[in-house]
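Board notes (copied after class):
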Amino acid sequence: MAIERTLAIVKPDAVGRGLLGEILARIHKAGFQIIAIKSLRLTKAEAEGFYAVHRGKPFFAPLTAFMSSGKVVVMVLEAENAIARWRDTMGATDPAKAAPGTIRREFGTDIQNNCTHGSDAPDTAAFEIGYFFAASELL
């Protein structure tokens, strides 16, 4: 398997509920290396740019409002097969359908307030990482 990088976001619901430390611990326990990390608060326009692929869908406005409602922590994770492994660590988007032991199952409250985001493919990861991090931050 190839070494990959993926974007991970700890969403405003998890940051606001004090879950950052637990999620970081799970990232380390799962064997990811954190290449870059920062805490920030997205503007509505920044959230809309990040989620532009979903523009026009019914959940776009609530999603971008939610993602700009509080602090987030964005990070670049690196590991073998990082994209699929991070998605497995997070669990299904709907916490009620996520596997036991996953972040979303244990801490998520609904489809929107599901604590974490992860890239779904290599091209998505490249766009998402570049959205938040300059190349010089990824050395």
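Comment from the instructor: Strands lie at 3-10, 33-40, 72-80, 116-118. The CA atoms of residues 19 and 59 lie 24 Å apart.
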